[in-house]
Amino acid sequence: MVAPLRIRKRPTNRAFTQRVRPCGNRPAGFVHWRYKERDANIPYKRTVTLVARDWIPMDRLTKLSILADAAKYDASCASSGAAGRRSTPDAGLGSTTGAGICHSYAPDGRCISLLKILLTNFCVYDCQYCVNRRSSDIRRARFSVREVVELTLEFYRRNYIEGLFLSSGIIRSPDYTMEQIVEVARSLRTDHDFRGYIHLKTIPDASPSLIEAAGRYADRLSVNVELPSEAALTRLAPEKRMGPIKIAMADIRRHRDEAHEDRSAPPFAPAGQSTQMIVGADDSNDRVVLRTADVLYRSYRLRRVYYSAYSPIQAASPFLPAAAPPLLREHRLYQADWLLRRYGYGVDELLPAGGAGSLDLRIDPKLAWALAHPETFPVDVNAAPRELLLRIPGVGTRNVKRLLTLRQRQKIRYLDLRTLGCDLTRTAAFVVTVDYRPAETAALALRASTVLAPRQATLW
Ligand code: SF4
Question: Residue 92 carries which DSSP code?
């Protein structure tokens, strides 16, 4: 039996939707849409991929629509940081580089060219924030290992995807579920010589030997920390504990370190590990969220922490909020996270103790810090050390690198900053060059035009 042409409909609930031509050499029938999020304050586009082909059997297609939809809440699926597995000169299948494969990343790191599915959305756990929880009244489906393997290979051969992101609800037991997940990766790698990217979601309560096996086949592993605090986890996910989650992360880190030290050992999750934290499902403020993320980065060398704004679900627990947090909060957390990892900021600098505890939604955290520390500015770009240059709003790590190179050859002038790609609307109030010094009131004027500018109140 053949399938109808569409798996999913055009997303109509977006403020702006535009059909775009298939990019690269994706075949006809691969339809995707770009849209802007409804919140106009978020200046980026995301791409939704809709697949329309007639080669998937109907029952498999139905399962695919259920299990791909169930996986959409999992944000931690970026493949950034993975080394390419080349398919040449061997006869292996798949490569994360070349071969006309299109990468579509949202700026927050989400990758949308993976086949992102759950093995099943049946689950014996009852996490209150999850649409797949035991008590949820939803359509259920389950793939066999063989079905996931075949779908991945078929999608890959048609150049729809560059890899697989596989997660699952927990069926029977954590070990049983993890065995199934590992078997998918094993079959792809060893039976089919699949060289594409594989990201497996690991189940914290599963046996360490299964997590070790997963790391041998996968490029990236992730263990979801789910919520920012142990108390929130106990209240909203009664079967989960922070302890086993951290032990699983520590195991992954240990195996990675061992593989790194012993060059002859097979690689272990070479793209590292990541996690996801749901934001807005409990009353933890941004300081708690970022502190938890900071500890995880330092303790387990995570590549990324993904922040996922809580989406209200049907028949939700009274412990959960009725409304979703603003998507902008998620965006600000990503910006702050970036500052922690790449710019040398500390959590206490961004959110000092005794302050509001949450990031200002009106301006980005770097600009907020600069406006709150007038004693640090203006910075002389011809003399300041790298650490201080990184603190200038509108100047990114790449700009700083170029600036340091250029100033070895010449004195930096104001227009050089534009040539270097700095965002002068934000930078101008905070820098001194050989031919420019900002007015004393420049930072105050910038503050007035960003923080204090009147905004149209929302009607809803
Ligand atoms: S274990 Fe995972 S799939 Fe199951 S209810 Fe909890 S979050 Fe959802």
Answer: -
